[in-house]
């Protein structure tokens, strides 16, 4: 695992300046590796209660330090009987803080407190009918199920079943073949076998609201403004008198992060915008101007394209490209920090600010460790092992739409807030094969046409991303009376909520036609345009 990731896992609350503050009375979600873990945290924040995910292996001190109003134990793919089954410290159940176990969380609670979990032959997915106990009265007297009908459809995704309850527990609901909800109201420990956080579960939000407001007595006081206030206070406390540099790209995430940290540190923050040579057409000049003139940020613009391209010569492997770019970024920043500090070894500049978001984290390094790395996002897993900076990542618990909301609250212009995401390694992961200057120019020109036409069709703010990809595949064409043998451009336009899943956009034929005609006519060396009709999963949004 990368060092940065290891450090995070060791002390996530301390490491990430600006995380949940005790006085917000948030809810900690302990992650057992479930696919919906981050969704649980997000659903809680939608109720104006702050929530952050911590690895299940977090120590009791780390959890207690956050003074949470409640603790949720997430689902996960394991069985409690697996040799490597993830575990929490059992003291989590004796803190006097209300606990809600979901799916694996329920099985772990049962197993830990002396109940019986039965190993299943195979997992059960999909819808199930849930019935409350004693449904004739329509009220089981459980705070968790206040106002919830006696029968509803829920979403299941579990393997093992709870067979016998630990002492002090009672069954609140069941499905056809399993105990589906239990509680020990005295100890304030609740558990459900289904997933209240997914949309397919009827009244799931109400159940979560009951946990938050009836059981935990949490207060709905988390908002964009509260986040900004708490985060800036936490950053101030963390950095003291030291200075920081920020890797600013002009995208939503890094700009929101920079403005937030600027509020906390003022001029002790220096922003650095690096031209890697792999930015979109005219992006370097335009963005610099906007950051300096409109947002009044202190920004050093560094044109490092030569050295990036040099390092990438002959490299075709996607992960290699990402790693090289990540390393070079840090080298550039370390040099700049040294310059800023009159040659002293990194001077007092101890921090690097990045606009990392939750989906970046989850796909690069699992919060709990060993799950598969999909891509090394350069602002997470692509960073080199040894870094001369500690990270400040104030947005790393949030999703893109939440960051946009924070940005709006900070008064950022729409131009930035509506900007499509752009990967850290930039066009390097959209130019397949070796990266050369001429091919970069070709891709920039084609990409500019895609974006222009999507804007002209009024679709820019309706889609998640729209861009061009250059393929090192030549095909035969005919132009005028001559034969051509040129490159292929793939057009990728996707819709998504959070980049974890995405679907290709059914663009109107006229828009596709304009894009295709313009690219072939205006971009030299391209003879063919194709439209990418793959969704994520199984494909990813970027091609590399
Ligand atoms: P994929 O290709 O993994 O992309 O489906 C998901 C989202 O993340 C963006 N992306 C990145 N963002 N650094 C970033 O900051 C990266 O290295 C990176 N790689 C992909 C991608 O554009 C999409 O929105």
Brief rundown of the structure:
The chain is 33% helix and 22% strand. The protein is an alpha/beta fold. Xanthosine-5'-monophosphate is lined by residues 360, 363, 375, 377-379, 421, 423-425, 465, 499, 536, 540-542.
Structure description:
- The structure is a single chain.
- The protein has 544 residues and is α/β, with parallel strands linked by helices.
- It folds into three domains: 24-215, Rossmann fold (3-Layer(aba) Sandwich), CATH 3.40.50.880; 224-417, Rossmann fold; 436-531, GMP Synthetase, Chain A, domain 3, CATH 3.30.300.10.
- It is built from 16 helices and 20 strands.
- It has a nine-stranded mixed beta sheet with strand order 2-1-3-4-11-10-9-6-7, sandwiched between helices.
- A hairpin with a 2-residue loop joins strand 9 and strand 10.
- The longest helix is centred in the middle third of the chain and has 23 residues, at 318-340.
- The radius of gyration is 25 Å and the shape is globular.
- The structure holds xanthosine-5'-monophosphate.
- Xanthosine-5'-monophosphate (XMP) binds at residues 360, 363, 375, 377-379, 421, 423-425, 465, 499, 536, 540-542.
């Amino acid at each position: 695992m990368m060092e940065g990731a290891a450090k995070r896992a060791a002390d996530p609350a301390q490491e990430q300046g600006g995380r949940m503050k005790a006085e917000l009375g948030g809810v900690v979600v302990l992650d057992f590796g479930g696919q919906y873990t981050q969704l649980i945290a997000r659903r809680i924040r939608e109720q104006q209660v702050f929530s952050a995910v911590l690895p299940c292996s977090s120590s009791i001190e780390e959890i207690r330090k956050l003074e949470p109003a409640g603790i949720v134990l997430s689902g996960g793919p394991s069985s409690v009987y697996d040799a490597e089954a993830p575990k929490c410290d059992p003291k989590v159940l004796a803190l006097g803080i209300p606990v809600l176990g979901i799916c694996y969380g329920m099985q772990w609670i049962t197993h830990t407190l002396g109940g019986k979990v039965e190993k299943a032959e195979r997992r059960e997915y999909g819808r199930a009918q849930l019935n409350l106990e004693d449904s004739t009265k329509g009220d089981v007297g459980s705070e968790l199920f206040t106002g919830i009908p006696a029968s509803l459809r829920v979403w299941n995704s579990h393997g093992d079943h709870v067979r016998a309850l630990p002492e002090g527990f009672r069954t609140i609901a069941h499905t056809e073949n399993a105990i589906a909800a239990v509680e020990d109201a005295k100890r304030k420990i609740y558990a459900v076998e289904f997933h209240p956080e997914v949309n397919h579960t009827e009244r799931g939000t109400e159940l979560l609201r009951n946990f938050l407001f009836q059981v935990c007595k949490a207060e709905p006081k988390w908002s964009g403004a509260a986040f900004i206030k708490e985060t800036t206070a936490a950053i101030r406390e963390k950095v003291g008198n030291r200075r920081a540099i920020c890797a600013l790209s002009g995208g939503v995430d890094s700009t929101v992060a920079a403005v937030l940290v600027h509020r906390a540190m003022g001029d002790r923050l220096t922003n650095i915008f690096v031209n890697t040579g792999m930015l979109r057409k005219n992006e370097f000049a335009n963005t610099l101007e906007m950051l300096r003139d409109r947002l009044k940020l202190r920004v050093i613009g560094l044109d490092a394209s030569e050295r990036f391209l040099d390092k990438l010569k002959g490299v075709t492997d996607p992960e290699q490209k990402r790693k090289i770019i990540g390393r070079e970024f840090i080298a550039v920043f370390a040099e700049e920090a040294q310059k800023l500090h009159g040659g002293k070894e990194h001077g007092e500049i101890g921090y690097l600010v990045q606009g990392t978001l939750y989906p970046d984290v989850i796909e690069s390094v699992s919060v709990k460790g060993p799950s598969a790395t999909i891509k090394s996002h350069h602002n997470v897993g692509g960073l080199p092992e040894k870094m001369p900076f500690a990270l400040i990542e104030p947005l790393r618990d949030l999703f893109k739409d939440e960051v946009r909301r924070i940005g709006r609250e900070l008064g950022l212009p729409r131009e930035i807030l509506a900007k499509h995401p752009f990967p850290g390694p930039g066009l390097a992961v959209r130019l397949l094969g070796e990266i050369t200057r001429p091919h970069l120019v070709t891709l920039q020109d084609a990409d500019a046409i895609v974006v222009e036409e999507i804007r002209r069709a009024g679709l820019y703010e309706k889609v998640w991303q729209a861009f061009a990809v250059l393929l090192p595949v030549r095909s035969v064409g005919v132009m005028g009376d001559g034969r051509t043998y040129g490159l292929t451009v793939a057009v990728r336009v996707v819709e998504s909520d959070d980049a974890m899943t995405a679907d290709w956009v059914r663009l109107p034929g006229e828009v596709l036609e304009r894009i295709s005609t313009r690219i072939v006519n205006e971009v030299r060396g391209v003879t063919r345009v194709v439209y990418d009709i793959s969704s994520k999963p199984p494909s990813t949004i970027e091609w590399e």
